[in-house]
Amino acid sequence: MRIIVTKDYDEMSKVAARMVASQLILKPDSILGLATGGTPVGFYKELVRLYNEGTFDFKDVKTFNLDEYLGLSKDNPQSYYYYMMENLFKHVNIDLNNVHIPDGMAEDVARECKEYERKIKEAGGIDLQVLGIGNNGHIGFNEPDVKFEAETHMVNLDEETIQANSRFFNSIEEVPTRAISMGIKTIMHARKIILLASGTGKADIIREAVHGGITPDVPASILQLHPDVTFILDKEAASKLS
Ligand code: F6R
Fold first, then answer.
1. 142 C-beta neighbours (distance < 10 Å), count
2. Which residues make beta-bridge pairs with 99?
3. How far is 39 from 90, CA to CA, in rounded Å?
4. 138 and 144 in contact (C-beta within 8 Å)?
5. For the segment 46-93, what is each residue's pLDDT rounded down to a tens digit?
6. Which ipTM value was assigned to this complex?
7. What are the strands of the beta sheet with 2-6, ordered from one edge?
8. Active-site residue list
9. Which residues, 6 or more positions from 90, have their beta carbon under 8 angstroms from its beta carbon?
């Protein structure tokens, strides 16, 4: 595991964007795994800025997002599809046929999960996966007590996650309680992983994920076993690392 500690949120975002830009320059038809949430907003902004400089593009890139809320349609401003359009896709030359986000309105959820996993495999697997981390150690929406061997599946969100994500909704009652998420196995199969974390609120869980035991209670702890993972942290998120 590599750990990069940056001076602040902006630098964390820039380091992450440069790593993705470098991936796309070296392999223009990369398969990217993408995350949503508050943390990567600055990263997407910087990635779009670098794209506008013209050294790489998204013409041949395929993307797979980590997760989507169940019950939210693409045009719902709280859906991760909408987030991705706003933060990245509408600013770059990606072919929307190459964009994959689990369908939150799928009637047959089990089938949607299977299909999603099949599409990732068919594309050749994920070259570079971007992750955030929940306060409870989740990656994707793989909550504590996770099955490490799980592929894309339906999850019931923890109270803590619902509480944390309620800041993006008008009220906590509006936060969906279920989602579709790539599994830990799907994530661990990515060839390269970067995880972004910012702020003192993430310091305890970052310490556990990096220095604690590998346990389903801290889903991100499994990343200690990945051969090519980089944590990009601002100094607050890194403040409890020894
Ligand atoms: C988002 C995702 C989640 C978030 C995590 C942190 O696609 O899979 O694991 O990365 O909940 O969210 P923020 O960045 O809002 O603290």
1. 28
2. 63
3. 19
4. yes
5. 999 999 999 999 999 999 999 999 999 999 999 999 999 999 999 999
6. 0.99
7. 2-6, 229-234, 192-197, 128-131, 31-34, 62-65, 99-100
8. 67, 136, 138, 143
9. none
Domain residue ranges in the chain = 2-234
Cβ atoms of 31 and 94 closer than 8 Å: no
Ligand 1 centre distance from Cα of residue 140 (Å) = 7
Strand, helix or coil at 101?
coil
Nearest atom in ligand 1 to 181's CA: 8
Say if strands 2-6 and 229-234 run parallel, antiparallel, or are unpaired.
Answer: parallel
**CA–CA–CA angle 21, 26, 28 (5° rounding):** 80
Is the CATH code 3.40.50.2300 the one for domain 2-234? no
Residue given tokens 């994500």 in the structure block? 165
Atom of ligand 1 nearest to the CA of 80: 7
Closest to 117 in 3D by CA, of 33, 192, 197: 33
